[in-house]
Amino acid sequence: MFQGETAITVDDKGRLAIPTAYRELVAGACANRLVVTYSPFETGCLWLFPYAEWEKVRDQVNALPMVKAPHRNLQMKLVGAATVVEPDGASRVLLPASQRAAAGIEKKAVLLGMGNKFELWSEQAHLAKIRQTLGEDDITDDMADLRL
């Protein structure tokens, strides 16, 4: 569904414009309802889900037994912080200030289409991540058969 990398500017009010290439996809996939939440795996990154996709993720995460600390941590970062946003007339969504601050997202950011969701990275975190390379020890069994 979503793929590609787009440099994004976040305005002084904390809004970002949905790139033109994604506007129809977002409207069709979720009637312009997105959910913004933390990436539990990466610092400097927020996730933006189409609402229907978010409901699947939310239900899976909430089904985890709360007696385990990692489950509670995942539930807090994903479900507890989830905020529904809808584009305004100019196709801008308002990102929660607390989430922008925690992820270090300021004026310049990078929006990545990752299939079923978007990742919004601070410019610095994205650059650092892109500069990392995979070493031989990083290759998993699932990756070994890829023909890249």
From TrEMBL:
Residues 5-53, 82-125 form the SpoVT-AbrB domain. It comes from the Bacteria. Its main location: cytoplasm. Pfam families: MraZ (PF02381). Keywords: Cytoplasm, DNA-binding, Repeat, Transcription, Transcription regulation. The keyword Cytoplasm applies. One of its GO terms (cellular component) is nucleoid. Signal peptide: none annotated. GO terms for biological process: negative regulation of DNA-templated transcription initiation. The keyword Repeat applies. One of its GO terms (molecular function) is DNA-binding transcription factor activity. SUPFAM superfamilies: AbrB/MazE/MraZ-like. It is found in: Cytoplasm, Nucleoid. Belongs to the MraZ family. Forms oligomers. PANTHER family: TRANSCRIPTIONAL REGULATOR MRAZ. HAMAP family: MraZ (MF_01008). This is Transcriptional regulator MraZ.
